[in-house]
Design a protein that fits this description.
- This protein is an alpha+beta fold and 743 residues long.
- It folds into five domains: 13-183, Topoisomerase II, domain 5 (Alpha-Beta Complex), CATH 3.90.199.10; 247-326, Gyrase A, domain 2; 362-478, Topoisomerase, domain 3; 508-589, no CATH class; 607-743, Neuraminidase, CATH 2.120.10.90.
- The chain is built from 18 helices and 36 strands.
- The strands form twelve sheets. A four-stranded mixed sheet has the order 16-11-10-19. Strands 12-13-15-14 form a four-stranded antiparallel sheet, covered by helices on one side. A four-stranded antiparallel sheet has the order 22-20-21-25, with no helix packed on it.
- Helix 12 (349-390) crosses helix 17.
- The radius of gyration is 40 Å and the shape is elongated.
């Protein structure tokens, strides 16, 4: 049920009522809370804080005031949503590690890069910064529109005049309903250069803009390691991501030793949490190249990393850290903004810059119009003063003798109400001759200014020239030579993705992999486990016992044709029964493990595998192509119907021997088998009845060997079974096992 405008209750379908209310909530969140305006880069709460601080006289040239006074003033007049969200927004605008150009000049504990919270607002002091002053220039000159506040008692600005390009300078972040925004901060001097380029060349491309404004400039510095093409694509579409790395340097010590010092960390990464994560990884032996971590930071970041040995390559050490902790992060760009305060849309960098220029031109025109009105009013008053001076004695007589001097003067000289009121309110000291001369000079100056204002409002070219001069003034105030102006973030070419040696990430140890028939797996130290270690649950027994090192990979082949990869260092240790392998890989209950083996780095680079299904189809695949670093594995051998993946063997020798359940043996050359990355493969042996039983690789010159009980038997002359791929084969030699297997 809902109420109509007259207050009557109406029956409304629930989905319709909920839809209307959710849409109303979503629009409110998008328009009045979460997304910034492209013109001033502010959300309503930030705009209200800045305007309230200016209105209350808490500006940059005045002494600091308690933050609580500013918060109370904002909550009382403009933002009735509690003091905590207001103070949190105010704190962020004051943090030099959160805002590239702080809009609030704070004094006291406003938090730290470690992630510490700010002190309570009763303990801190604040005032507007010079950047905020530039944002508010002209706010009292009808430069922007105002709206009623929440209680209708006063008015607040819909947008700020924004002589300072705040959106791109400080960036913005927010999450609305169904959409979000994330704009990185930039260097103001570069923004000004890009704006001036657009004024000079409106058809400038993103590539030309990036020549002057190469990318983000984060408050905490860092290094952007993406290519120019990736950055250009992100700014052209308004969406993308950039990789930001910590800045580090090598410090040499005595005796050939060295240490790495991190001096800048990625934006929005709390230093304390970063160190905690690194320490946790180090404790778990996930950082084998690192010997110690020390935080020697004061006001500047100084994070000391001590390598385990002098022979450790510092670049290798840092690359290993970049992979596992927040010394490298991704900043996701999503320039979803309120265009002209009304329509949310994703905008390109050029569109954002042009929107700012259009806003500045509108502000110039509105301020000029306001000033023209003031000049006209003053000229009208000065004209009245001039008439009064020319008829000074008569004016004095009328004021002294007449009952209604205002009406008399209006009738006698045709003066307006404004002129008469100004004359009547004139002080006696203004009747000096010198004052008359000053009025004439002021009248001439204002007349000249009036002509200039009228010309400005009529000429679009002059308006853009005025905007250009204002941008140049901002460049001087916040340019490279100022304390805030120097660029902090630099750019490096995208690093070459070369495979890091596994030893750089895992401590090398000899281990034995034990997997039971029921799929319980564990690793034991060393290559000679004792019988006491090789124990299994009741009803279970041994199946695989493999030797390797912690830097090796365990390759698992399942009956569904999928390969799975698990690092030996990830296997559970200890003297228990281990863990079910199915917890480490996503293997369906109806599928089984066909085979598993340990692969070294050298094997992965050069070895090939022969994979065969029970239907006798298969192909050769490079070992490196079957590696899968997700739990879901990688589908290599496609099987259909009742067929299952049956065998996976290393390609050695020059021929392949296959035997079916029908006891037919076929030998053919390996060159007949194609190499593929995935698929069903080709028919290797044809069966009329039954399926493939076993397969092995061999060298023809050495003959065929097989196990028969405790004996190993051998057949040298293989011409009787040598054929072409896809044939049926012949009965095996005398003494071949009845199990139809080679081992």
């Amino acid at each position: 049920m809902t109420h109509d405008k007259s207050g009557h209750i109406q029956d409304t379908p629930l989905h319709e009522a909920l839809g209307k209310r959710y849409l109303s909530y979503a629009l409110s969140t998008i328009m009045a809370r979460s997304l910034p305006d492209v013109r001033d880069g502010l959300k309503p709460v930030h705009r209200r804080i800045l305007y309230a601080m200016k209105e209350s006289g808490n500006t940059s040239e005045k002494p600091y005031r308690k933050s609580a006074s500013a918060v109370g003033y904002v909550m009382m007049k403009y933002h009735p949503h509690g003091n905590d969200p207001i103070y949190e927004a105010m704190v962020r605008m004051a943090q030099d590690f959160s805002s590239r150009y702080p809009l609030v000049d704070g004094q006291g504990n406003f938090g730290s890069l470690d992630g510490d919270n700010a002190a309570a607002m009763r303990y801190t002091e604040a005032r507007l910064s010079s950047c905020a002053g530039a944002l508010l220039e002209g706010i009292d000159e009808e430069a922007v529109d105002f709206q009623d506040t929440y209680n209708g008692e006063t008015q607040e600005p819909l947008v700020l005049p924004s002589a300072f390009p705040n959106l791109l300078a400080n960036g913005a972040t927010g999450i609305a309903v169904g959409m979000a925004t994330n704009v990185p901060p930039h260097n103001v001097a570069e923004i000004c250069e890009a704006l001036l380029l657009l004024l000079k060349k409106p058809t400038a491309t993103i590539a030309e803009i990036l020549e002057l404004m190469p990318g983000p400039d984060f408050p905490t510095g860092g290094i952007v390691v993406d290519s120019r093409e990736d950055i250009e694509a992100a700014y052209a579409t308004g969406r993308g991501s950039l990789r930001v790395r910590a800045r580090w340097e090598r410090e040499d010590l005595k005796g050939g030793l060295y240490q790495i010092v991190v001096t800048q960390i990625p934006y929005q990464v709390p230093k304390a949490r970063l160190i905690e994560k690194m320490a946790d990884l180090w404790t778990k032996k996930k950082l084998p190249l690192l010997s110690d971590i020390r935080d020697e930071s004061t006001t500047d970041v100084r994070l000391v990393l001590v390598p385990k040995a002098r022979t450790v390559d510092p670049q290798v050490l840092m690359e290993s850290l970049f992979k596992v902790c927040d010394l490298e992060t991704r900043f996701h760009i999503n320039m979803n903004l309120l265009d002209h305060g009304r329509v949310p849309r994703v905008m390109s960098l050029k569109e954002v810059l042009q929107a700012f220029l259009n806003h500045r031109r509108e502000v110039v025109c509105r301020r000029a119009t306001h000033r023209l009105g003031q000049v006209d009013k003053r000229l009208e008053i000065l004209e009245g003063y001039r008439i009064a001076y020319l008829n000074l004695d008569e004016v004095i007589r009328i004021i002294r003798e007449e009952d209604d001097p205002k009406a008399q003067m209006q009738a006698k000289w045709g003066l307006t109400d404004l002129q008469v009121e100004a004359i009547l309110n004139m002080r006696l000291r203004a009747l000096r001759k010198l004052e008359e001369i000053e009025i004439k000079k002021e009248h001439e100056a204002l007349s000249l200014e009036r002509e200039e204002l009228i010309t400005l409002l009529a000429d679009e070219g002059l308006q853009w020239k005025k905007v250009s001069l204002q941008i140049k003034e901002i460049y001087k105030r916040f340019g490279p030579t100022t304390p805030l102006g120097a660029r902090r973030t630099t750019f490096e070419a995208k690093p070459q993705v070369s495979e890091m040696p596994l030893e750089a990430f895992v401590e090398r140890e000899s281990v034995s992999v034990v997997c039971s028939q029921n799929g319980w797996i564990r690793s034991l130290k060393g290559h000679n486990p004792s019988e006491a270690d090789l124990k299994y649950k009741e009803g279970d027994g041994p199946r695989f016992l493999l030797k390797g090192e912690t830097v090796d990979k365990l390759i698992i082949f399942a009956s569904n044709g999928r390969f799975f990869t698990v690092g030996l260092d990830k296997l559970p240790g200890g003297r228990g029964h281990g863990e079910p392998l199915r917890l480490m890989i996503d293997l369906d209950p109806q599928d089984e493990i066909v085979d598993m083996f340990v692969a070294t780095r050298e094997m992965i680079e050069k070895e090939r595998l022969l994979v065969v299904s029970s239907s006798g189809r298969g192909f050769v695949v490079a070992l490196k192509d079957v590696l899968a670093y997700t739990k879901g594995g990688k589908q290599i051998l496609n099987v259909t119907g009742t067929a299952k993946a049956k065998k996976c063997v290393m390609m050695t020798g020059d021929a392949v021997a296959m035997v079916g359940e029908n006891r037919k043996l076929l030998i053919f050359m390996q060159e007949e088998i194609p190499q593929m990355s995935r698929g069903q493969g080709v028919l290797l042996q044809r069966y009329r009845d039954g399926r493939m039983s076993d397969v092995m690789c061999l060298t023809l010159e050495e003959g065929l060997s097989w196990k028969s009980g405790e004996r190993t038997r051998h057949e040298q002359d293989l011409r009787a079974w040598l054929g072409r791929r896809g044939q049926s084969g012949r009965m095996p030699p005398v003494g071949f096992p009845r199990t139809n297997t080679f081992v």
